[in-house]
UniProtKB/TrEMBL annotation:
SMART domains named among the record's database cross-references: GGDEF (SM00267)
Domain GGDEF: 386-516
PROSITE patterns linked: GGDEF (PS50887)
Annotated TM spans: 12-30, 36-54, 74-95, 107-127, 139-158, 170-192, 271-288
Organism annotation: Virgisporangium ochraceum
Keywords: Coiled coil, Membrane, Transmembrane, Transmembrane helix
Domain of life: Bacteria
Name under which the protein is recorded: GGDEF domain-containing protein
Classification via InterPro entries: DGC-Regulatory_Protein (IPR052163), GGDEF_dom (IPR000160), Nucleotide_cyclase (IPR029787), Rev_trsase/Diguanyl_cyclase (IPR043128)
Family matches, as Pfam families: GGDEF
Coiled coil ranges: 325-355
Length: 516
């Protein structure tokens, strides 16, 4: 809820108009003396009834929490007690206009006391929202610091007027502002908490009546003795206007659910520091005004106590910071361990991925490139415009070795042949096992001496191979039929492989005496 929206609210406008009217009528002493008390009581009565209605409406809002609903219902009852006190004041003032300058009637004091008691109880029983132990310690240190400043200020405003007071004066100076301090304590407790039932703006506006009441109680005798009785009664009315203003702000903001709650949502609060600073400023003023006397010593003691509490609060914050740093370091260590585990997992994953890629493109028995990798590289060479050479190799006599000595011996023979072919080709090309006893060689370019290459490959394959353990090794040898084809301009993959196959099968048939 923006300030513009609040300024357009009819209730806020009515409160502002009432404030101006009270300031003009009572400030300029426009009312006759005999109706001052009755007029102030009547206006206060109307405002207090309106405050009770507003409190009930706030409690009924769906945005109001359970504890907030209880708070505002009690506030409505307290407003009615205040209204009852105003009824009594109106009756007394109407019967005897001079009561405006005297102490309130007992019935009025009783009703006002009950209202204040209700407010104190509900304020102190409303949850602060502070849960953790460390946070609770910081919270109470902040509250105590602020309350020291409040108590010193109240002492200065309503304390004894001499540096050597009589015992009775001192007792009255201590007991008189006690209720004000208690109420202030409850308000500070809510303001520093995290679940205050009112918004920040409503809480600030609602604090105005307490300030006005304190000022009125402190200066009442001076205003009456100087003939400004209307000012005294006007401040009473303004206190009730402020009461209604705070409730109206709460109603407008809560009904739209757009206002920030009064609970502190940051890790620190400025109120304790402001309280200590105010104490020292008050000390300077007292020393300049009356010098070093009882008042100065009280203010100095409050300032020193507030400073000590702030230091304690900072030490508690340092302890919390140390604890947070320790926990952060522990988390960093955990993250480091997790990082190591993750790195190992990533390495294992990469190794597994590399293994899978290797298995996908290589023959599991010999470790040579398989048909897929061979064709991919041949296709890439042709696409690049190269003139690759393909050699197709088929072993001669492998089947008898495999049948006579078993598949294990056949596997050993294939592994030996693969190793020898790789040594012959080295980095000049790719050696692949196409399947069974068929091999292939891919050269990036045509060999300088094709016949010499074919001879070297055939000689390497034909070398005897020992199968089995050394003591019982069986020596076998096989031959190989090799077909070669070199790509020319426009030669495609199928044609190139077909030409190499035709030459390889032609040589194989010639070896067994079959017609080509």
């Amino acid at each position: 809820m923006s300030m513009d929206a609040l300024s357009r609210d009819r209730g806020i406008i009515a409160v502002a108009t009432t404030t101006i009217g009270v300031l003009v009528v009572f400030g300029l002493d426009l009312l006759p003396y005999r109706v001052l008390g009755a007029a102030a009581a009547l206006v206060s009565l109307i405002l207090q009834v309106f405050a009770a209605v507003l409190s009930r409406r706030i409690a009924a809002l769906p945005t109001t929490t359970r504890s907030g609903r209880r708070f505002w219902r009690v506030m409505a009852v307290a407003a009615l007690f205040f209204a009852g006190g105003s009824v009594v004041a109106f009756g007394y003032s109407a019967a005897d206009p001079d009561t405006v300058t005297r102490t309130e009637p007992p019935a009025q004091l009783t009703l006002f006391g009950l209202a204040a008691l209700l407010l104190i109880v509900v304020i102190f029983t409303t949850p602060s929202g502070i849960t953790s132990g460390r946070e609770r310690v910081r919270f109470w240190l902040d509250v105590t610091t602020v309350m020291v400043g409040v108590a010193v200020l109240v002492w200065q405003l309503s304390g004894p007027s001499t540096d050597q007071p009589e015992t009775g004066d001192l007792v009255r100076a201590l007991v008189g502002p006690a209720a004000m301090v208690v109420v202030a304590f409850g308000v500070v407790r809510l303001a520093l908490g995290r679940s205050a039932p009112m918004t920040r703006l409503a809480g600030a506006v609602g604090a105005v009546p307490a300030v006005l009441h304190a000022v009125n109680e402190t200066t009442a005798a001076a205003m009456i003795s100087s003939g400004h009785v209307s000012w005294h009664t006007g401040i009473v009315v303004l206190s009730n206007v402020g009461f209604v203003a705070g409730l109206r702000v709460q109603w407008v903001q809560s009904s739209t659910a757009t206002a920030a709650p009064a609970g502190v949502d940051r890790s620190y609060n400025r109120m304790p520091y402001v309280a200590v600073l105010a104490n020292y400023a008050l000390l300077v003023w007292v020393l300049m005004d009356v010098g070093l006397g009882l008042s100065a010593w009280v203010v100095l003691g409050g300032a020193l106590l507030g400073s000590a509490l702030v230091v304690a609060r900072q030490l508690a914050a340092f302890a919390d910071n140390d604890d947070l740093v320790a926990r952060l370091n522990a988390k960093v260590d955990e993250l480091a361990e997790a990082k190591d585990v993750l790195q190992r997992a990533v390495q294992e994953r990469d190794a597994l991925g590399e293994r899978l890629r290797h298995l996908a493109y290589h023959d599991a028995l010999t470790g040579l490139a398989n048909r897929t990798l061979f064709l991919d590289r041949l296709r890439a060479a042709l696409a690049a415009g190269d003139t690759p050479t393909v050699l197709m190799l088929d072993l001669d006599g492998f089947k008898p070795v495999n049948d006579q000595h078993g598949h294990h011996a056949g596997d050993q023979l294939l592994q030996a042949v693969a190793l020898r072919l790789s040594r012959c080709v080295r980095d000049a090309g790719t050696v692949a096992r196409l399947g069974g006893d068929e091999f292939a060689v891919l050269l990036r370019t045509a060999p300088a001496d094709p016949a010499d290459l074919v001879r070297r490959l055939a000689d390497a394959v034909a070398e005897p191979v020992k199968l089995g353990p050394d003591r019982t090794a069986t020596v076998v040898s096989v031959g190989v039929s090799i077909g070669m084809a070199t790509a020319g301009p426009g030669t495609d993959l199928t044609t190139l492989l077909h030409e190499a196959d035709l030459e390889m099968y032609a040589k194989k048939r010639r070896k067994v005496g079959q017609p080509v």
